[in-house]
Each structure stands twice: as C-alpha cells, then as structure tokens.
C-alpha cells in the first residue's frame, strides 16, 4: 500500500461536538469546544483530512453543516469528507458546493445501491465515500442498519461490498457499530474480511481506535486509512504523534 490517511472526526449534534456510544443517541458525550475550533486544532497539528458528520441529519435528513463546512474550508487547508442525511443528488451537489471534497453516503447507499452506483459515474469515484456500517448477528453475518443506525435494513454487508466494487467505488468506510465510541479496538477481522472481498477498495476503518498501535493494526489488516474520533477528543494520544503513520510503507 502506497500511503495511509488519518481522518480526525468531528460528529456534530445540535451544533456541538459529541460522541455516541454504539450509535445510540441516548448515550451521548458532549465536548466543550466549538466544532470549528476543533477542526482548526486538527489542522494546526498537521492533519490533511477531516471527517465531519451531521448526526441530526443522519437520523432525520436535511444536512445542516454547510455553514460550518464553509468556515472550515475558509480557515484551514483541510480536505473534508462529510455526510449525514444524503437523500438525493441535490444533497450531494449542495455539499460539494459548500466545499466538501468527498461526500459520505450511508443509508441511501444501503437502500438504493443502483442509484448510488449511478452517482459514482456522475460525480467520479474521488468525490464519494460509501459508508457500510455494520452489526454482526449471532451467526457471524454482518447486517447494515440505516437512519443513523436506528433501523434494520435486512441487507448484508458482503453483497454490497461486491456491488460497489463492481460499480467503480474507490473509497469505502466501514464501522463495526458495536465498537463505535467504545475504545475497544477496531474490528480487524471485519476489515480483513472486506479487504479480502475487494482488495482494490481504499478501505477506511472507523470505530474503536484506542492508541497508536490500533492505527498500525488497521493498516496491517488492509485498510488505507482510519477515522479517529473519541480517542483524540479524550486526549488518549496527540494527533501529531499519529501522523507519521501516513507516510508510505
């Protein structure tokens, strides 16, 4: 692999930086810093990318972070992938117009894969990230909930990974929902599984990262990058200490 990308994450709800535990909106931790200030801090530490999530829109639709996104782009050199509430091509257009470098499509990518596959041809593989966030059942099958992880879709992970690989996807993000916000380590078996199914995808690990060793382990499992959320916000390590992982192998 010729490089690795770290994506410090800012999840926003009601205008505040928050983290949820296992995607549960009732289990929220709020952080005191303004979202723009956090983005600027990550940029000052040397980050190249930011992962920005509108949690209100993820559940209800209607992306609300365009002003914040525009402020981040105006005040930093960060490239931003952002998502939450994408329901239409117009939503993607609006996010790109607000300054997004990549738009993350989650629930709609599960419910309407043919439609999102068409968007890949329209916008190009470098402008979209598909998020396939999953929960495992007792038999080890991975299912993809939607609407901010609140609704069961009945769609399996493996089938959609294959679909999007065939449709020309490049950037795939996947979260083991049960590890999100839990600081339990990334699910390396999940990422090895996805990498084996579609090694051509630039896979982003999300959920559970505790320390620098987890960042290295995700890379060794076949990931092209990792999203860093609670571990940075809680000060478990400094972003500057993790950034050398972005150097090529």
What's the CATH topology label?
TIM Barrel
- In CATH's first tier, which class applies? Alpha Beta
Order of helices and strands: EEEHEHHEHEHHEEEHEHEHEHH
Taking the sheet with the most strands, its summary is: 8 strands, parallel, barrel
Average pLDDT score: 93
Number of strands: 12
Count of helices? 11
Shape: globular
> What is the CATH superfamily classification?
Aldolase class I
Task: Give the distance, in angstroms, between the N- and C-terminal Cα atoms.
Answer: 6 Å
Strand content: 15-25%
Structural class: alpha/beta
The helix content is 25-40%
What low-confidence regions span 5 or more consecutive residues with pLDDT below 50? none
Write down the domain tally: 1
How are the strands of the biggest sheet laid out side by side? 1-4-5-6-7-10-11-12
Give the topology.
Blueprint: E1 5-13, E2 16-21, E3 24-30, H1 35-45, E4 49-54, H2 55-60, H3 66-75, E5 79-83, H4 89-98, E6 102-105, H5 107-111, H6 113-123, E7 128-131, E8 135-136, E9 142-143, H7 157-167, E10 171-175, H8 188-197, E11 202-206, H9 212-220, E12 225-228, H10 230-233, H11 239-242
Parallel strand pairs: 1-4, 1-12, 4-5, 5-6, 6-7, 7-10, 10-11, 11-12
Antiparallel strand pairs: 1-2, 2-3, 8-9
Provide a short characterization of the protein structure:
With 249 residues, the chain is α/β, with parallel strands linked by helices.
Characterise the protein shown here:
By secondary structure, the chain is α/β, with parallel strands linked by helices. The chain has a single domain, classed as TIM Barrel (Alpha-Beta Barrel), CATH 3.20.20. 37% of the residues lie in helices and 24% in strands. It has helices at residues 35-45, 55-60, 66-75, 89-98, 107-111, 113-123, 157-167, 188-197, 212-220, 230-233, 239-242; strands at residues 5-13, 16-21, 24-30, 49-54, 79-83, 102-105, 128-131, 135-136, 142-143, 171-175, 202-206, 225-228. Strands 1-4-5-6-7-10-11-12 form an 8-stranded parallel β-barrel, surrounded by 5 helices. The protein has a two-stranded antiparallel sheet with strand order 8-9. α4 (89-98) links the parallel β5 and β6. α1 packs parallel to α3 (66-75) and α6 (113-123) packs parallel to α7 (157-167). The chain is globular. The mean pLDDT is 93.
């Amino acid at each position: 692999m010729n490089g690795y990308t770290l994506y410090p994450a800012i999840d926003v709800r009601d205008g505040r930086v928050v983290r949820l535990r296992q995607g549960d909106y009732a289990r929220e931790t709020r952080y005191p810093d303004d979202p723009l200030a956090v983005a600027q801090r990550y940029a000052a530490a040397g980050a190249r990318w930011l992962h920005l999530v509108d949690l209100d829109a993820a559940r209800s639709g209607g992306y609300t972070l365009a002003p914040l996104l525009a402020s981040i782009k105006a005040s930093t050199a960060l490239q931003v992938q952002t998502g939450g509430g994408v329901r239409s091509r117009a939503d993607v257009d609006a996010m790109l117009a607000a300054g997004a470098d990549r738009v993350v499509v989650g629930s709609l990518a599960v419910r309407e894969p043919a439609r999102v596959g068409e968007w890949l041809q329209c916008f190009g593989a470098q402008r979209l990230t598909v998020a396939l966030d999953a929960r495992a059942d007792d038999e080890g099958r991975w299912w993809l909930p939607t609407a901010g992880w609140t609704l069961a879709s009945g769609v399996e992970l493996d089938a959609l990974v294959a679909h999007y690989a065939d449709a020309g996807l490049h950037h795939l993000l996947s979260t083991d929902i049960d590890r999100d916000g839990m600081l339990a380590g990334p699910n390396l078996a999940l990422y090895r599984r996805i990498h084996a199914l579609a090694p051509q995808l630039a896979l982003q690990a999300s959920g559970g990262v505790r320390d620098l060793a987890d960042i290295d382990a995700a890379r060794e499992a076949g990931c092209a990058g990792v999203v860093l959320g609670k571990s940075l916000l809680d000060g478990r390590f400094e972003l500057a200490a993790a950034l050398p992982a972005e150097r090529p192998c």
